[in-house]
Amino acid sequence: MTKVNVTINGQPVEAEAGMTILEAAQLAGIDVPTFCYDPQLFGAGACRICVVEVENARNLPASCVTPIWEGMVINTESEKVVQARKANLSLLLANHPLDCLTCEKSGECKLQDYCYKYGVTESDFVGDVKDFPLEESNPFFERDMNKCILCGKCVQVCHEINGAGAIDYAFRGFASTISPAFGEPVENSPCVFCGMCTDICPVGALTPKLSKFKGRAWEINKVKTICPYCGTGCAIDLHVKGNEVVGASGNREGLANKGHVCVKGHYGWDFIHSPDRLTKPLIKKDGKFEEASWEEALSLVADKFKAAGAEGLAGLSSARCTNEDNYLFQKLLRVMGSNSVDHCARL
Amino acid sequence: MTAKPKIVVGLGTCGIAAGGREIYNAIEKALTENNIDAELTQTGCIGACENEVLVDIAKPGQPRISYGKVTEEKIGEVVTNHLLHDKIDREFALGKIGEGELSAEYDDLPYFFTDLPFYEKQVRLCLRNCGFINPEKIDEYVERDGYQALKQVITEMKPEEVVEVIKSSGLRGRGGGGFSTGMKWQFTMNAVGDKKYVVCNADEGDPGAFMDRSILEGDPHSVMEGMAIAGYAVGADEGYIYCRAEYPLAVNRLKMAIEQAKEKNFLGDNIFGTDFSFNLKVKEGAGAFVCGEETALLMSIEGKRGMPRPRPPFPANEGLFGKPTCLNNVETFANVPVVILDGPEKFASIGTEGSKGTKVFALTGSINRTGLAEVPMGITLEEVVYDVAGGIIDDGKFKAVQAGGPSGGCIPEDLLHLPIDYDSLTEAGAMMGSGGLVVMGEDTCMVDIARYFLSFTQIESCGKCTPCREGTKRMLEILERIVAGEGKPDDIEKLKTLGEAISATALCGLGQTAPNPVLTTLRYFQEEYEQHIFDKRCVAGICVDLMFYLIDAELCNGCGRCRKACPVSAISGDKKEVHVIDKETCIKCGVCVEKCKQEAISLQS
Questions:
Q1: What average pLDDT does the segment B585-595 reach?
Q2: Average pLDDT in the A10-24 region?
Q3: Average pLDDT of every residue of chain B
Q4: Looking at the partner chain, which of A59, A94, A172 has a beta carbon nearest the beta carbon of B505?
């Protein structure tokens, strides 16, 4: 790989050819604020919060989409840059509800973080504000477009990663918003509720219902695990507060999924603490289920297998098992003398 | 076959809007009624819009006489007088074009292009055919050396040579950016790709601009020929013309021209029997101004929402459908056949050091001669405003000229000496833009003009980047406040800071230039902003909220009509005594002015 030498904030940095200014800065451990940037998505250059000063450049280029060149001299926090970022934040703040006290995103909101960093306490501009109704008709997440800063990452993740293409920009100018086609609620769109948009949203515009009022960002412990719903083996983070699972999100370190998730892995966790959940085996006695020990239950099953004989035995496996699980399952059935093995996905 | 007299009616959109079709029908009727055998045909806009409807009559062996502002009632008479009695109606005659025998009594008729002040300083390269050919008949284009440049290029030159010719001509993009056309072609030629495209930006959207429309309506083939030449040079076999749907006549004529060119094999496979094939499609825009921005335009052709994307990659490397794409505007392509046929040296001999050739301008506003003018680069704004456009109407005083549409700026009187070229205009805070020149007189409020342009860019902002979407909105709100008389002392500073931040950080050209009308009016007319904010006055008399109605005590006879008519009882006064208007109560509806027979009530600032 060809090396390119640049100077960032006076510090010489050896980066790789083809890198953006932002990537070179990250390589050097220099933090540049971003809203719309995500390494998994095509560079949009939309939010302009990552602008930097480049010597001899006409404007302040967006670092996330500007490639580096040999000898480039970059300043990521010059006075001009800071002024531009403050103006940008002030503009966003002028059109953003300041309900941080009850906002689900508080504590991990990028708008909050950057306003804090640059000391933007209130907007310089008072005028019209967006007034969209809260969209909460679907079972999985809420869409509050009044909080949306139009970074466009939800649109990109929906088109570029999921492929559903359920949402896009609508209208122009100040009226711009993100919407399913024809302003329909999201459940009437091709949305498959993977919820990756809620994971990627930098502010509180898209929030999972499962987690609502269940805990603040700083109270949540993210526990990495493998999603048990199917055999793909997606790495997810269970959001745990105390001893309760209050949500989940994709984990980007997952080799199988790189942070991508589906509706089940994202939202299908309310069963964990459901009062209807079975925690002990039940055996039906006199037409009624009664709690039993595992030993008792397994013995009963073994007796029934024996009574049925190989001819009377069939196995039905599940998509929630891994390939290895399913292999072992059919092996077990064959050892028991039956070739009648099937799988729920064929139903 | 003996040559027939020829009658040509200007039927561009401008001519049609002025009643050209009715004139055409009236002529047809007059010819039939009088049994006159003459060829009646149409042409595109010749540029002299203020004289529409234009009708040219030419008898064999005589110069062509151009009649302007003809009326439906009189045109029959004009035609019969001319054709049957060799009588030229001086009420309508503008001038003569070409040579030939003409009765000595008409020796004083001016020559159209050399004597009429509107045309005297013009050099018509791009518009060479506009007003002369019937755009719906390819043969008329071919007669005027049409497709000769393409033939020369593909039968005698290598692509590299074509690029070299365009480079040495000094031709720069006429869409506003002013990038070297030859360089752009070279980048696309050198780009690696199994498929390449040529795209013509015909999404002319600036308020007051109609250069590209006139070229497409009057001479579509020269644009198509330029595109085919570009296709050969860069190695593309397919092209798109992205034309706004609001130009239905241009779209129709383009589609017609493409069909005719295909029949003649100037487009299609194996053009002129060579290996070179080139096909063209028209893609209609859906009304978004931002689609004039090249990356948004490409997105729109691809069927996506027209939104700009960052550059690099530039279209020359990754353009339409991700393929190398050569993208130029209408006027640029229309110049290409001229450069090839006349040679790059001749083209480069016109204009200035950095800006070669000519530029077409759409002249509008408070001027005596509105229309389309093609002037050599380097001509001063003063010459264009006074010599070509004839100065301000009613001998009014010049205030500013808005160059470059909503992205441009307002240039004041003391900069009128500026030569028109890319670099001088940029230095003045304006830009060449696509060529709209809106001339404004003393009765224009510069704050209100800035507000108007901001309202345009705000509505047309694509919504993608924060500075443009949110910033132009806040600038607009401040301007709306100022014209409403609610300006605050720090508003000027806020406008400057915000404007500069938007310019420095917005994603695309639209956003980066959106504050220009505000920044230039602040630069050259700051005192007007101050008058609005601090004195609550609008000297131009435009901002109604800053005006008040006043009854002239000398003229008022106390008739009481105004008092009775006032819907909010703001007027008081005894019978036969001078009446007065209470400024606080008055809602400025103006009813009192209408009622006053003494003309004693007027709007004051």
A1: 92
A2: 97
A3: 95
A4: A59
Domain limits, chain A? 3-77, 216-276, 278-308, 310-347
**Chain B residues near residue A169 by CB distance under 8 angstroms:** 305, 307, 462-464
Q: Is the pLDDT of residue B485 over 90?
A: yes
CA distance B144 to A98: 68
Residue B464 lies in a domain: yes
Instruction: Give the CATH number for residue B513.
Output: 1.20.1440.230
> CB count, 10 Å around CB of B507?
28
Using CB atoms, pick whichever of A59, A80, A91 lies closest to residue B474. A91
Which pLDDT score is estimated for B2? 55
pLDDT reported for residue B53: 96
- Decide if A174 touches B, using CB distance below 8 A: yes
Q: How confident is the model at residue B1 (pLDDT cuts 50, 70, 90)?
A: very low
> Scanning the structure block, which residue is given the tokens 């800065």?
A25
Say if B558 falls within a structural domain.
yes
Domain span at residue B517? 446-535
* CATH number of the domain to which B107 belongs: 3.40.30.10
pTM for the whole structure: 0.91
Contact B236, B196 (CB under 8 A): yes
Interface test with A, best of B293, B307, B469, B510 (most A CBs within 10 A): B469
Topology of domain A216-276, CATH: N-terminal domain of TfIIb (2.20.25)
B458 CB neighbours in chain A (<8 A) are 173-174
- The CATH number covering residue B286 comes to 3.40.50.11540
- Give the C-alpha separation, A105 to A206, whole Å: 9
Q: Which residues of B touch A88 (CB under 8 A)?
A: 466-467, 501, 505
Q: CA B17, CA B513: separation in Å to the nearest integer?
A: 32
Same domain, B400 and B456: no
What integer pLDDT is reported at residue A232 of this predicted model?
A: 87
Chain B hits for A43, CB-CB cut-off 8 Å, are 310
**C-alpha span between A216 and A197 (Å, rounded):** 20
Q: Give the model confidence (pLDDT) of B131-187 as tens digits.
A: 999 999 999 999 999 999 999 999 999 999 999 999 999 999 998 889 999 999 999
Tens-place pLDDT, residues B177-222: 899 999 999 999 999 999 999 999 999 998 889 999 999 999 999 9
Domain boundary among B509, B535, B561: B535
> Which of the listed residues B284, B316, B348 is the one where a domain comes to its end?
B348
pLDDT band at A263; cut points 50, 70, 90: very high
Which residues are CB-neighbours of B481 under 8 A, at least 6 positions away?
B487, B488, B491
Tell me if chain A has a CB within 8 Å of the CB of B295.
no
Q: How many domains are contained in chain B?
A: 5
How near does any CA of chain B get to the CA of A197, in Å?
Answer: 17
Interface A–B counts its CB contacts (< 8 A) at 111
**8 Å CB contact of A173 and B290:** no
Cis peptide before A246 (omega within 30 of 0): no
Helices and strands per DSSP (H, E), number in chain B = 25, 18
A65 touches chain B (CB under 8 A): yes
Measured between CB atoms, which of A43, A88, A176 is closest to B310?
A: A43
pLDDT tens, residue by residue, A291-340: 999 999 999 999 999 999 999 999 999 887 888 899 999 999 999 999 99
A48/B288 touch (CB, cutoff 8 Å), yes or no: no
Instruction: Give the nearest chain B residue to A126 (CA atoms).
Output: B474
pLDDT of residue A347: 57
The residue-averaged pLDDT of B508-522 equals 95
**CATH fold for domain A3-77:** Ubiquitin-like (UB roll) (3.10.20)
Give the number of C-alpha atoms closer than 13 A to the C-alpha of residue B159, restricted to the C-beta side: 16
> How close B577 gets to chain A, by Cα (Å)?
46
Q: Is residue B422 part of a domain?
A: yes
The answer, yes or no, to whether residue B57 has pLDDT greater than 50, is yes
Residue B472 and residue A173: Cβ atoms within 8 Å?
Answer: yes
Can the peptide bond before residue B312 be classed as cis, meaning omega within 30 degrees of 0?
yes
Cβ-defined contact of A88 to B477 (cutoff 8 Å): no
Alpha-carbon distance A165 to B579, whole Å?
Answer: 68
Which of A64, A78, A82, A91 would you mutate first to test chain B, the one with the most B CBs within 10 A? A91
